[in-house]
User: Which sequence fits this backbone?
């Protein structure tokens, strides 16, 4: 360990950043976790590299390009690496299949199609970078620094950025955007940032004073909170992209038809330089299957999200650049904890012990998933604690638990919505549970019926069925899963789980700002959920997208956005 | 004839009112929560309530009904519940696309099917007649989604001869549009060929056996003259009626074909509106399809009256 180099970094960091550095130096964070965590707390790329080198690692192999802020001016962002990273030809258009957007109002949009379209023209303070698709990096902000306790975050904005109508981008735009989002009750910022919380310190700096400590704040103003795209100060809430197509991004909207598609042309004044492609041509689809057919028929070049069932052929297609993005996408098998056959913990554990998770992943996703361990802390999160023992199928143990609970001939109805692989999952779970003598009757219903009558009926989740499978989308942090689905009286708590210990662990997590505190809170959460099993959670599946090998450089988030600034024809 | 048309138009207004009422009943009497359907299962109840308030879907049912009927007759269908855009321009786009697809399908089907029907009728019970009848029965018994899928896989994916999507690029010329629409139009034409060919054949056989046809032949008219002056006019009356109904059906959108070829015509638009409880879109769509049906049948009636003077005289009485 080179202490003199390490001390140099130590002296230039805030307490929260120092906490991250110390955690890595003392071996409590892996290099990958350090890079992830460094990005969140705003450690500069050069600092991350220096710390890794000081601790005896090879900074080059640590891929720090996306971590944190570019204080050294190194090209860490999506834009800066756009033109340079494209090895192919310049010119041409890529034809992209995307889910049909419902709304392209940046503040009010709620669907993946809308996210995908809006993010072509509008940009985030923190975004993904081409070299690292899990962690956030600089976008319209080049650097972010927390105060000692994580209650105040200062963002330095990128200079020389212009809106597509030629006016300069300033901190006033960021403040106005945040005010609009706070007023609209943005789900990520709710309870974190209040009215007047964002203040323009100078034209290139914004200071966020939070309602409480939050160690993940940069995630909440990043690509992972899709509505936080920065819009001009004069933007009126409710305006859609096509009515005012003037972002800061690499692409200018040239045509939008809500039913059929959209086209974009290169923004020649983009701060990231000239994109290799001339334009983008999006075609809207209602389902994943026709997207795959369109690709196979050479009618599109790229697909923004498809499911394994309809896109099996693409997984092994040698001419397809598959993006299998690890994510927090998952299914929860809820079990009613307050009454009925699953009220006893042992019964819930028994059912969870019947899951053959590797087999489920192989059969349903051809391996494109991470193992779940009956808790919602996905392996992609930097505070995921892998030390909690992985539950594996153990039929004898399941039988023994049922016996301990005094339950024999357990028979239950497993409710499932007609969505993607869920009906198949239900059938597989039924056959696995049968090995322990549990009889599950699978009831597959339309999504309207399922959500309205089985999962969380209108009058509250207390009326939910005793057993069912519900889908959850990708989130940059697990707060929504923890708060809504598992916390006592949570609005989506279909298992009616109520645990003081869990509630306290969740509160600890929300207020934790340091690495150790967050990991400790997550360890508690994982342990409690794994033990209590209010939900079974067999896997976190990959977000699937990709393009023809005639193009390279496309990359995607797990939330409907795909980025083409560095895409070129081969 | 003017009286006939006037009476039909008056009846059309009553039909429109009935249509609007039926749509309203279906959309409002069945249990649903528009706000919940639009915002999805994960939206907080406050947001759902606020949206219902904004959309006016929590007003008394009678108030909503009067509003809707007024909108139908003043062509004010309002904004879509889902995307907040005015409904009519969106439906105008969709009906335009459906018109192109239906038009091409009919252009392919009608001449071929009528010719085949006539040819078969004139060679009744010969091998060629049996072949045409068999082909007609077979093609009309295969659903559009099957023929569409086969065409996509074989012609689009394997042979890569034609695009597998029906929507052409923006500002595409007429030839490009034709290329994009050919596969879906073919999958529809294959089904309707059978109906129209069989109808034409049956009508022609009946007329060929009629006394006046024999008289025409006996007075020395050539076969071509007999066919043109006496047979076709009478034989095609049921065919015209069938085509009129098919026009309305095709404009209404063949949802399966539109789905397979990712074509946003009336079918997909209406299906999406129904799934998302987009009542203004659904109402306007049903009314527009109703109008297309009415116009098509009116044109068919006028055509039939023109073809057969007896019907014309009946209509005038």
Assistant:
């Amino acid at each position: 360990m080179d202490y003199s180099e390490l001390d140099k970094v130590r002296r230039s960091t805030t307490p929260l950043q120092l906490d991250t550095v110390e955690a890595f130096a003392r071996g409590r964070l892996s290099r990958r976790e350090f890079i992830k965590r460094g990005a969140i707390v705003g450690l500069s790329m050069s600092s991350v590299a220096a710390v890794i080198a000081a601790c005896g690692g090879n900074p080059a192999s640590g891929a720090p390009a996306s971590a944190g802020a570019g204080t050294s001016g190194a090209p860490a962002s999506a834009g800066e690496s756009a033109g340079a990273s494209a090895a192919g030809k310049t010119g041409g258009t890529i034809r992209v299949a995307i889910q049909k957007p419902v709304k392209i109002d940046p503040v009010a949009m709620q669907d993946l199609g809308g996210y995908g379209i809006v993010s072509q023209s509008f940009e985030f303070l923190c975004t993904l970078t081409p070299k690292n698709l899990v962690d956030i990096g600089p976008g319209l902000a080049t650097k972010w620094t927390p105060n000692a306790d994580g209650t105040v975050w200062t963002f330095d904005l990128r200079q020389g950025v212009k809106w597509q109508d030629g006016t300069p981008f300033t901190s006033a735009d960021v403040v106005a955007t945040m005010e609009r989002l706070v007023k609209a009750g943005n789900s990520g910022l709710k309870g974190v940032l209040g009215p007047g919380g964002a203040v323009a310190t100078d034209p290139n700096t914004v200071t966020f004073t939070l309602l409480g400590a939050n160690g993940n704040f940069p995630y909440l103003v990043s690509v992972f909170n899709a509505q936080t795209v920065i819009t001009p100060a004069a933007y009126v809430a409710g305006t859609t992209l096509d009515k005012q197509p003037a972002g800061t991004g690499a692409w200018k909207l040239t045509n939008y038809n809500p039913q059929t598609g959209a086209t974009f042309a290169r923004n020649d004044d983009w701060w990231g330089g000239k994109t290799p492609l001339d334009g983008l041509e999006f075609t809207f689809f209602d389902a994943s299957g026709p997207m795959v057919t369109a690709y196979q028929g050479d009618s599109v070049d790229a697909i923004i999200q498809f499911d394994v069932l309809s896109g099996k052929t693409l997984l092994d297609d040698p001419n397809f650049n598959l993006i299998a993005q690890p994510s927090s996408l998952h299914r929860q098998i809820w079990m009613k904890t307050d009454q009925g056959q699953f009220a006893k913990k042992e019964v819930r554990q028994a059912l969870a012990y019947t899951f053959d998770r590797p087999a489920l992943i192989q059969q349903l996703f051809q391996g494109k998933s991470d193992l779940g361990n009956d808790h919602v802390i996905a392996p992609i999160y930097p505070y995921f604690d892998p030390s909690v023992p992985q539950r594996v199928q153990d039929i004898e143990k399941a039988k023994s638990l049922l016996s301990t609970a005094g339950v024999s001939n357990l028979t239950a109805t497993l409710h499932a919505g007609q969505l993607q692989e869920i009906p198949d999952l239900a059938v597989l779970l039924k056959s696995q549970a049968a090995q322990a003598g549990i009889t599950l009757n699978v009831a597959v219903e339309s999504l309207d019926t399922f959500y309205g009558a089985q999962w969380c009926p209108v009058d509250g989740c207390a009326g939910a069925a005793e057993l069912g499978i519900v889908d959850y989308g990708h989130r940059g942090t697990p707060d929504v899963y923890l708060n809504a689905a598992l916390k006592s009286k949570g609005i989506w708590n279909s298992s009616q789980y109520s645990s003081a210990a869990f509630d306290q662990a969740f509160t600890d997590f929300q207020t934790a700002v340091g690495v150790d505190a967050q990991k400790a809170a997550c360890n508690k959460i994982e342990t409690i959920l794994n033990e209590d099993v209010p939900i079974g959670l067999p896997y976190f599946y990959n977000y699937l997208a990709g393009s023809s090998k005639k193009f390279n450089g496309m990359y995607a988030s797990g939330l409907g956005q795909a980025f083409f600034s560095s895409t070129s024809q081969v | 004839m003017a009286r006939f048309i006037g009476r039909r138009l008056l009846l059309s207004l009553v039909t429109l009112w009935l249509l609007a009422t039926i749509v309203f009943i279906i959309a409002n009497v069945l249990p649903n929560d528009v706000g919940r359907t639009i915002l999805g299962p994960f939206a907080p109840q406050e947001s759902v309530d606020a949206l219902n308030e904004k959309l006016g879907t929590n007003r008394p049912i009678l108030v909503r009904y009067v509003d809707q009927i007024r909108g139908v007759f003043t062509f004010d269908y309002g904004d879509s519940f889902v995307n907040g855009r005015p409904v009519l321009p969106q439906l105008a786009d969709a009906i335009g696309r459906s018109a192109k697809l239906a038009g091409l399908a009919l252009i392919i089907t009608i001449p071929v099917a009528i010719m085949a029907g006539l040819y078969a009728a004139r060679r009744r019970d010969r091998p060629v007649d049996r072949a045409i009848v068999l082909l007609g029965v077979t093609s009309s018994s295969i659903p559009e989604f099957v023929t569409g899928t086969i065409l996509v896989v074989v012609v689009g994916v394997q042979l890569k001869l034609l695009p597998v999507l029906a929507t052409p690029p923006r500002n595409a010329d007429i030839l490009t549009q034709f290329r994009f629409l050919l596969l879906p139009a073919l999958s529809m034409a294959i089904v309707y060929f059978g109906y129209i060919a069989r109808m034409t054949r049956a009508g022609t056989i009946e007329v060929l056996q009629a006394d006046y046809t024999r008289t025409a032949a006996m007075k020395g008219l050539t076969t071509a003259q007999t066919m043109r002056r006496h047979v076709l006019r009478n034989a095609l009356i049921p065919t015209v009626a069938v085509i009129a109904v098919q026009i309305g059906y095709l404009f209404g959108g063949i949802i399966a074909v539109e789905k397979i070829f990712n074509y946003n015509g009336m079918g997909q638009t209406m299906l999406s509106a129904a799934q998302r409880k987009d009542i203004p879109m659904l109402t306007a769509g049903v009314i527009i399809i109703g109008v297309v049906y009415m116009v098509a049948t009116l044109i068919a009636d006028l055509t039939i009256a023109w073809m057969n003077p007896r019907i014309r005289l009946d209509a005038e009485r």
